[in-house]
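Supplementary Methods, section 5.1.

A reviewer requested that the exact input to the structure prediction be made available. We therefore reproduce it here, unchanged from the version used in the analyses.
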Amino acid sequence: MVELHEDIPITDRRLGFGLSIKQQPVMLALVAALGALFFLAVAGLSRAYHEQREALGERWFSRGVADLNGKRYDSAMTEFRSALLYSRDNFDYQLNLAEALIGLNRTGEAYSYLVNLWEEQPENGVVNLELARIAAQRTQTEQAQRYYHNAIYAVWPGNQEEKRRETRLELIEYLLSINVRAQAQAELIALQENLGDDPAQQRRVGELFLQAHDYEHALAAYRLSLKVERHNEAALAGAGRAAMELGQYPLAERYLQAAVAENPNDAQSAERLKTTQLVLRMDPFRHGISADERDRAVMEAFATAGQRLSSCATPKGPNVTTTGQPNLADSWAKMKPTVSQQELRRNPDLAEQAMDLVFEIERQTSANCGTPGEADQALLLISQSHEGN
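The structure derived from this sequence is encoded token-by-token as follows.
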């Protein structure tokens, strides 16, 4: 039998290694260390690879943003597509690509991106606003309004209140463009409550109220603007027009006089001022005038209506009719001898009767005989004001 000695290596038959028992832990530790180093090296290379891809994507994206801001939409589209090659699920890359496509009028492609982005972030303000604009362009009114309202109450980067205000203003302008005045008025009232005293914003809202035919709110907005900027010609002109539409001619005269004084080249305000002053002079129902002034105003109005009838013997313009005009001419001729200062003083009801006939003549001839003259236009405005009272 062979005698074994302690200092002779023993072969590990299970592992097949010619190692001593003392050497095995050292080798295992070395293998583990090499494995860890290999793993760290691979992870580092992978991280470097992804960082490089992200850097390339960001570089293309930055170029795209610069071209998008410069309205070079074709270049921006190419650059955003290049950025997406390195990060195909990046939300910002896709959103900016959609905006570049919109700039190129490729709204169908943009819409596909935006719908997917909306499903990912339905509270995103930019996405909702762009979807609203596309829906408006496609005359999808209900969808447009829904997306606009989503955008108003959505999350916005930067100054949220300013973005929401501008979005509501865009919605209002859209509603006015499709002649939905009642909803535009409601949106304007909601907007005005949160505007504060900023004069420029109040002027802008005043102009939109004028477009919506809401003259009371328009006048209120212009007055708020004028509290801060008393001599602003645009606010003065807007306030004058609003007051004129409301039949508040003394107030309109003051604002329009101030507007023309600030800007003598404002032809529209000058024309409105002329009409306003003519209304104030010709109106027999205005407060504070004497009986003689009233009677003279009635006689002037009656004579003006008679001249309008005479010039309207042959109606002007297409598709007009003379229905009722012969009867008006007969009525005017029958009443003419009584419309004198003496008769008007004797019969207090005659002034009202004469002006009723004048107003009827002006309304019918306005419909059938083309554009009225300045005096006739003034009588029409007095008629509207008198009916309102």
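The radius of gyration is 40 Å. These observations are discussed further in the main text.
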